[in-house]
Amino acid sequence: MCFPLVLWAQPNETNVRIQAGVKIRLETEPKNRFLADLDRFLELKDADFTTYRYVDSLNYTTYKDLFDALKFIEVNAALNDSNYYRPYLVNFVEQAENTFLVSLSFRGSQNGEVDERARMTFLAQESNHTFKFLNPFEFYTKDWNTRKIKNAHFYYRGAFNEEEAEAFANHNEFLAALWNMESRPIRYYKCLNLQEVYQLMGIDYHVDINGVKRGCVTLGKANLFVSGTNREEYKHDLTHFYFELQVPQQSRNWVAEEGYNINLTDYWGFATKENYGFLKQYLAENGVTPLEIFEKNRIMKSPISTKMPVAALIMRKIEREKGMDGVLQVITCGTTDDDFFKAIETVAHITKENFNEVVEEELKKYFSPQN
What we know:
It contains 13 helices and 16 strands. By secondary structure, it is α+β, with helices and mostly antiparallel strands. The strands form 4 sheets. Strands 1, 2, 3, 4, 5, 6 and 10 form a 7-stranded mixed β-sheet that branches. Strands 7-8-9-12-11 form a 5-stranded mixed β-sheet, with helices on both faces. The chain has a two-stranded antiparallel ribbon with strand order 13-14. α7 packs across α8. The longest helix has 25 residues, at 307-331.
């Protein structure tokens, strides 16, 4: 892929390079002010914008996680270069009076090859001779259709599956009851895939999510749930949403939580029974033990790995025998696999010595006619 030549700004005018062909359609004075304010915005990105001069306070606090994606974006750790990825202005489009969509590409070069890390878009608004830079999510979605079911507010384009939406709204109520709290007024946005989710949130491209299709972005304080499944429900990640609100990160055991969630909802869009079917087949065909494929975590059906369905069987047994108190004790045990093993031994007397027997027996119970 060929990139156009870059026009370099005059020294001391701006640190942002302006890609050839990009036209900033402003008079000289506001154009210089825009470039100066953009420079200052980027200079402040590694710290919180506490003065709010170059951001809108409400927009910034709502979408802070997205602004945080800018932090230290210029660093290339592999090359030990703290200023490798440089900002290039690649688009400037007027939307309304004093309102513009501004796109930046963060890239460097190696051996003559362009190395782009990310491309981000902001909504630039001028007021009182200062440009503020906003996350564009609300601007992009302001004309979407809306529907409210119970305490879930759905935003969508095109067709709407009421049955799936109701299932999601019911799951929201279930999770709130589980935590003995009021249900959150979830704002659920239905997007085609994870790439569209990030594009709506101003991240047009990022090397870390390149090619990833399924997923979501959640902002708990804003009750925002932006789903990249092209469906009206994503119960799996709504479960994680509530756990993230309630469990401190340093206590949260992802393996236990994911295992519980597989039993409660699904995994990578595959139903619980399908996941256990994949696991049963993998064990039969590969001559391996549950403990081995828990610790080594192999891929059994891309992107599904062996570890989480094995953990799900452990959590299934604990929930049946110890109830939610036992489940929560394991999920809040700490972040490591060692924490997980200590917790399941304490709660359910499951050790590495009887781990295989427990998992195999639980898998057999799941597929028994009596289940």
